[in-house]
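As the next step, I selected for study one protein, both as residues and as discrete backbone shape codes, as given directly below:
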Amino acid sequence: MIPAGYMMKRVAAGAPAVANPAVTRICSVSDCISEDFADWISHWKHNGYWLFDSPAVISETASAAGVDTFGRTTFYYEVYEREFDDDSSSWSPLDPDLPFPVNVSSPETPTLLGFDVCSFSVGSAPECSPLSCNALANEIPVNSHCLLESLEQAVALLETGAFTNSEPGPYRIFAVYSLG
């Protein structure tokens, strides 16, 4: 897993289409349900994984955008070193988007919440997390954060077609951590 960066979100208690009673929070990488803290792309402070290198950079960006961060949660992400193309059923190496540098400062005591699969059809910012956005959490076992329990589970689900036709790929796997 590669240190990919941080994002601050307003965590949703659930998703309209997710009827899985195990799910109490949506901690997905995408911002479809648990929204990112701001319209941050226009500030050009993100790294090559379209996340932030540190919580301090998020704070600077929120301040510049005039956003109050009270009640929001900061997440740290690691990304699997390959992405999956469901059209060809193949894995390919994952590199950061150039020319954005990546200099992620790893947190001291993150808490692993689980693993998310996210679509990247444009190849830049995270798009949709089919577990929550497409309610695949109703069919696939997930934890209370609407995340998978292991990297191995995520890989197996991708390779067996569980995400096919949910969103356009390729797909990337993220380890999702909360801070504090």
